[in-house]
Amino acid sequence: MEPKADKLKHSLSQYITTGLFAGIISAIINLGYFFIYETYTDYSEPLITGYRIALGSLIPAIFAGIIYFIVERFVKQNAFRIYSLIIILGTLISLVGPYAVSLSAAIDNPGALYILTFPMHIIVGAVILLMMKARKH
After folding, report:
1. Which stretches of 75-109 are DSSP H helices?
2. How far apart are CA 2 and CA 81, in angstroms?
């Protein structure tokens, strides 16, 4: 019989791994989008780099895995629905950052920056939800 602490640790590692996979997938999609956008629009912003895009995709996804683990442990009914609301709200709140930066006087083309970053945030949130839903089944 497996001790309870090992079972919880094993479960948590599975959630973190699913989050990591979601982060890797969203990072690949976002990097592809970034390079295509940069190529076809000739827009380049020194604040947006491949490294930052990769980290900005991986870190939230790993935390999302931990959050899902916590929600499933404390919520017995509709855990995925509550988790989905948390992720959707988090994604919407994350859009404030690019919007605030795009309003800065240091940015020469705020519309282009927002069009570049807005879909990236949506992609991360969507991939997290899809991966966690797939994990659930």
Report:
1. 79-94, 96-102
2. 30
Based on DSSP, count helices (H) and strands (E) in the chain, helices before strands. Answer: 5, 0
- Max Cα–Cα distance, the chain, nearest Å: 62
CA distance 52 to 54: 5
* pTM to 2 decimal places: 0.86
pLDDT digits (tens, 9 = 90+) for 27-49: 999 999 999 999 999 888 888 89
Q: d(Cα 114, Cα 31) in Å, to the nearest integer?
A: 16
Residue with tokens 């994990």: 135
Query: Under 8 Å CB-to-CB from 110, ≥6 apart: which residues?
Result: 102, 103, 104
Q: Contact 64/132 with Cβ under 8 angstroms?
A: yes
> What own/partner pairs with CB < 8 Å and gap ≥ 24 does 85-90 have?
87/125, 87/128, 87/129, 88/125, 88/129, 90/60, 90/64, 90/125
